[in-house]
Amino acid sequence: MEHVKYLSALSATAALLAGTALLSTAAVAQNGMNTTNLQHEVVLDGLDNPWDMAFLDDGTMLFTEKCSGLSVRLPDGAVNALYGVGEAEGYPANGADLFCEGQAGMMGVAFDPDFETNRRIYVYSTSNMSDPHTNRLMRFTLNDDFTAVDDRTDIVDDVVYKMAASDHPFGGPGAHNGGRVRFDPNGHLFLTTGDTHNSEVPQSPTKMGSKVLRIDTDGNAIAENNPPEGFDKRTYTYGHRNVQGIAFHPETGAAITAEHGPWHSDEITILENGGNGGWDPRPNMAGRGDCPDDYCGYSPNQEDGMNRYERAAFMPMTDFDTYPDAMPPIWNNNGWSQGTSSAAFLKGEGWGDWDGAMVVGIMGIGFGGTPIGQRIDVIQFNGDGTDVEDVTEMTLPMDPGRFRSLVTGPDGSLYASIDEGTIYKLTPGQ
Amino acid sequence: MLKVYALAAATCLCSMAAWAETPSTDPATADAPGAVVAEQEVDLKAAEKIFRKSCRACHGNQAQGAASYPKLSDKSPEYIAEKLELYRAGEKIGPNSILMISHAKKLSDEDIANISFYVATAFD
Fold first, then answer.
1. Who's near B87: CB < 8 A, 6+ residues apart?
2. Who among B3, B77, B116 is closest to A21 (CB)?
3. In Å, what is the CA distance from A430 to each residue of A38, A359, A414?
4. What is the pTM of this model?
5. Looking at this predicted complex, what is its ipTM?
6. B50 shares contact with chain A (CB less than 8 Å)
7. Do B2 and A4 touch (CB under 8 A)?
8. Pick from A11, A21, A367: which is nearest to B102 by CB?
């Protein structure tokens, strides 16, 4: 038994130290075996809050780090920094207007479907170019040797940003930006946004938070978008809380979101063009009175745990009483909110029964009696892709983490980034 | 297996070290005039249990910090203990205070001492 002497100036509490100690080792990596036997490898480590990845067919991987910037990992493993946040060092170019604060910073990234021809990429980041500040979707041209970006064009420059702290959990500036950037099979560009702890945003026809935008690569609305009268035409759906996960069903093509609930009810929702997610945290409506800083999103009893179904009744994630036609979720995480962040569809025979299933990354919170829940869930749909048929927690071959981004790679592997700084590659085993 | 003894000083020195946000395990600090030094035993197993249940989901599996949650592994035990005591008393000292207060109010003095030492030293 090894004893370590520690000399400290602890406060009075330290004087009460007692008890025996046996240091257990860190959790041993598991040999995953449920539907598939997963292998894993570390693709990149020591990153600064990796937020999202995007792939080319040859394995080239763009990745963002929230407070650092955009980089690319080449198939040979070399990494080139491309575009930094603010004054971040080590980048050949920087966006002086870009910054990170709280949950905000550089977030989603995507390759243009026609990248081989036009060399275009898309990156979503917080910017102080406008006042109040906004989140912007930037388009760049990536040079032929993957060493530099050019031609920055902000194709969306008006996604709302939370400027000041408020009296809420996670109440600092920069809360709830959404942030995922994805192309659907038709080549339409989707951008997910969040409510910024502003109760007026979700149902607002013009404030571009709490929306899923469907646009072309110049930032223009897709003509078939069908939001209600008076809405910004870029709106595909609205009334969301903070969408960080979106993926497209491999057979139906439907856009499906995975959304982080408040103190209850993470949700998966099949989007309907023009649909309302039913999130409306305004005070003095729907049976509610005043709420802290005019936002009921964590009410009631926002500072303590309570029964999640009672919470849901008071402040529904999808308020069918107020909005009977709201898009119904097809999964609500058993009523828990555990930090649902990202979504992707598995592809390849190696995944066995999971081929074509959706995977959802859950970061974990653990508040007020809620199980922490860090994991990747495998969501299997019914035959026509309209409902959830089964949910299985993926048995991981490594310790879990804050699963921020899940992306299916061109090799059929699932790439998973965790906020702690690692990008993993998960591959079905033999 | 590891048993750890902490030499704790129940003096006002703790607050100075804590707010400095710098590691302070220099024996010279605790030996400063006025320090009352006592050998203590830190229950690392209990601390690790608290860490895995209440800390790692936000602060990261190595207390390295993640998302909007700060790095803890570079802080001193004094700093962490003092902050936990403030949170336990219900004081709001940052945007994630509601989360911290929720966790800290369940901690005993012994828990705070254990987890403070563990977080500051387990991931060196």
1. B93, B97, B100, B101, B103, B104, B105
2. B3
3. 9, 20, 16
4. 0.86
5. 0.74
6. no
7. yes
8. A367
